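pinning this so it doesn't scroll away 📌
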Amino acid sequence: MLRVCFLGLIISLLMTSCSTPLKLNNQYRTNTMPDAEEAYKSQQVGVSSFSLPSFLSEQRIEHIKESKAAKIDASHIEVPARKVSAPTTIQVKYASLLNMLPGMLTNIRLLETIDEWYGTRYRYGGTTKSGIDCSAFVRAVYKVAFDIDLPRTAREQFRAAVLAVSNLQTGDLLFFNTSGGISHVGMYLGNNKFVHASTSRGVIVSDLDENYYAARYLGARRMREPDSYAVN
């Protein structure tokens, strides 16, 4: 009987000790629940007070404001005018003679030098404005425009200009057989045109396709490399 009572007492004590933490846990949970619920409710209030449509509307308004601020009134933009130089009188004149655009004629010094002699009458052996022959004319122009000293006669100039060319460029020497062998020289200007001292018309611009010159054309020679003729 005593054993039974003692056993019952032990069981009662054990049950009491086990139930205490449960109460503490329940108490802890009971004490902490209001704070958690309040935090949750505050979050709900925050979310409910935040209106998605109004937020999007505000963002749209801000975007419109930024776009307006970034928009530039084209009427107030000052664009610097592109500087386009008007062609000179000399360019216009020789553009007409060569059937080219004035802007394509860039070596103004060459044109001005040629123009000083343009129309000068032909005189065999002549070297002045009162009369000049073909080789003397080319020699005079080369000295001023390119600072190159050419030999005096057409044959000598042919031998000095050892670089034979087929792709003609301004300044190339053109040689013709007009009276046996290399007997006439001119200077290429562009668009199949060349300037020379013609025996019948003096210093003039002619076309390589003219029957007279086409039949007597011997070829072209260059004094320097292709890019060496100065553009002034």
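📌 and the second one:
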Amino acid sequence: MSESGTPKQVDDPDYHSVNHTAAQTCGWTANALRGEGRCYKNVFYGIQSHRCIQMTPVVKCNERCVFCWRDHRGHAYELDEVEWDDPEAVVDASIKLQRKLLSGFGGNDAVPRERFEEAMEPRHVAISLDGEPTLYPYLPELIAAFDARDITTFLVSNGTNPAVLARCDPTQLYVSVDAADRHTFDRVVRPVADDAWENLIDTMDVLAEKDTTRTVLRTTLINGWNMDDPDWYAAFYQRADPDFIELKAYMHVGHSRGRLDRDAMPAHEQVVEFAAEVKEHMPEHAELKEVPASRVALLAREKDTWIERLKHDSPFWNEAS
């Protein structure tokens, strides 16, 4: 693979890229390396934040969500002439980029050497940096390639390609549900294709059929836009029969600041209150967890939400967050 310049479809200066694969250091990865806290996915699911890659196999999205921190202009190109790398090459590129991004921490006195060395051997990948990953034609094979290297996979999708998601078996599959009715969906999500809402509904049925993949529905809550009708959300969620539901506050960052005012960002207390209202209509999801620093609440069936296959092999595993 060549690193001879940034390709057309990966043009964000904050990303490190190889061909159409891009990675970026998550702020929580940096914090975890310095012992300054960990991602809410550590609290909810047991993820070792300092060993997690944030990447995408394609920087293109077929939605223009009003709350997205990204610059939508970067998604306006066509995929027809992209020369796709095979899944093994994408895995190699992702690990290579992660090591490059974190290399500077090796000389940081605040980072224990053993923790840095662990970070050089990632255990998790969040396929969620940018774009819609189901647009990469070998996504099921990519997930299998990560899995073969004992790297847990967290796939985040907007649910517009249910047929692809039916073939994907990540460790945990997130699907965004940012509205419970068509009118709000069109206003908040602003899909490129006319059938996005219908496809999202079909994706709920795909998720209901998953028996080995843990499923999560994630809703970004925006004051004045989509924080109404918790009973409608509950009914929509129940169609997918998810393992978990994440309700997270919109954050007033990046390019979203040009689309939304700061008061569109709900306080953590508002997120928890809305989650509790949804929970009233979903008695099977009796557990409510929260992480104030991330303004996020989780509804779950059981108290133990950690992923069983994770190996607790780090001396920093039980370190205070």
